[in-house]
Amino acid sequence: MSTGPRTPEGKALISQNAIRHGIFARDLVIDTGDGKEDEDEYHELLYGLMECLHPAGQMELLLVEKVACDYWRLRRVLRFETGSIRKVIDMAISDYYNKADYFGNKEHRDNAELDWEISRCETSQDENAKTRLADLKRQRLKNQLAEEVAVKVASLPAGDDWDKVIKYEKAIQRSILQNLALLKRLQSMR
Q1: How far apart are CA 163 and CA 168, in angstroms?
Q2: Cβ neighbours around 46 below 10 Å, total
Q3: In the chain, what are the domain boundaries?
Q4: Largest Cα–Cα distance in the chain?
Q5: Who's near 136: CB < 8 A, 6+ residues apart?
Q6: Measuring CA to CA, how many Å separate 169 from each of 39, 149, 172, 176?
């Protein structure tokens, strides 16, 4: 029958069992759906912080895990921001390609359609094919420029999303700084 660790090294190792897999990991890491996260990445972050910050005792271990949780949430905020921007860009590009005149005729053909027709004109021996090819390449360039403009115009999240990103990012950064300051204070009292 084991009576537990007897050496100081063994006791130090066993004292981290509560944090070894992260007290908060089960509730923090999203494990289903489109936003699925990798629990191993979280543990890598946690162990890296533990190695860097050298916590001793349960309170210091919990503070380090709280910092890891906050950094994990910060990553999530950045993914939200990226997703919000991507949504606006995709919508602008979709609007560009789906814009139609009064009769329902689309004003712009998509790149796949243009590329297919360009390849046909490049292999054609018809004299009109060269003129048509130049026109198709101009349309292709126009599409490329329109997409670049959409990216530049939508490089920030839309109104409410921007407010959310700033709010959560500031709150998380404040929490990180507070927990690191408290950890430093505890470590100085050792």
Answers
A1: 9
A2: 24
A3: 16-188
A4: 92
A5: 114, 117, 118, 121
A6: 22, 28, 5, 11
Q: How many CB atoms lie within 10 A of CB 172?
A: 19
**pLDDT reading at 14 higher than 60:** no
Banded pLDDT at 47 (limits 50, 70, 90) = very high
What CA dihedral angle connects 118, 119, 122 and 128, to 10 degrees? -50
pLDDT at 19 over 60: no
According to DSSP, the residues that pair with 100 across neighbouring strands are 106
Res 21: pLDDT: 47
Contacts of 134 (CB under 8 A, 6+ apart): none
pLDDT digits (tens, 9 = 90+) for 61-70: 999 999 999 9
Q: For the CA atoms of 41, 42, 47, 50, what is the dihedral angle to 10 degrees?
A: 140
Contact criterion met (CB below 8 Å) for 80 and 164? yes
4 or 96, greater pLDDT: 96
Residue 106 bridge partners (DSSP) = 100
Of 116, 152, 151, residue with least CA distance to 136? 116
Rounded percentage of the chain residues whose pLDDT exceeds 90: 46
Cβ-based neighbours of 55, under 8 Å, separated by 6 or more: 61, 63, 64, 183, 187
Of 170, 106, 110, nearest in space to 146 by CA? 110
Token pair 């018809």: residue = 126
